[in-house]
Specification:
CATH topology: Rossmann fold
Largest sheet: 5 strands, parallel
Number of strands: 5
Mean pLDDT: 89
Oligomer: single chain
Structural class: alpha/beta
Helix content: 40-55%
Distance between the termini: 23 Å
Strand content: 15-25%
CATH superfamily: Response regulator
Strand order of the largest sheet: 2-1-3-4-5
CATH class: Alpha Beta
Number of helices: 6
Low-confidence stretches: 1-8
């Protein structure tokens, strides 16, 4: 790790991003939360879009939304982009396409199933794009 990587890591630990994971399947949600926490992020979770809206209303520190599409995830991404455009969105799905995710306002699309490194890389890429 070079100096830049060390500085980036120290900044992340001093001021970690907060990510909201929205996933209706509890095992997948728990795995995503654990992966992102292990990568040094603060992580909140919701099991559906309605719960996500409640979490979003109570936590202004959320920087990234990571959502599945099955429980109105694309509508949630669109709502977030209209009402809080500072929050970047990552859509994960085994059914939707990257084009659908992009049209809703997502920064990145990740196809399910994904490896742990894939989801961490998607978060890093989302941060770098903005």
């Amino acid at each position: 790790m070079g100096v830049r990587g060390l500085i980036n890591g120290m900044c992340q630990m001093a001021n970690p991003l907060t990510i909201l994971v929205v996933e209706d399947e509890s095992l997948i949600r728990m795995a995503a939360v654990a992966i992102l926490e292990d990568a040094g992020y603060w992580v909140l979770e919701a099991q559906n879009s309605a719960e996500a809206l409640d979490v979003l209303a109570r936590h202004a520190e959320i920087s990234i939304l990571l959502t599945d599409v099955r429980m109105d995830g694309l509508a949630l991404v669109t709502w977030v982009q209209l009402n809080n455009p500072a929050i970047r969105s990552i859509v994960v799905s085994g059914n939707a396409s990257a084009a659908e995710a992009s049209k809703a306002g997502a920064s990145i699309f990740v196809k399910k199933p994904y490896l742990p490194t894939t989801i961490v890389k998607a978060v890093h890429e989302t941060v770098l794009r903005h």
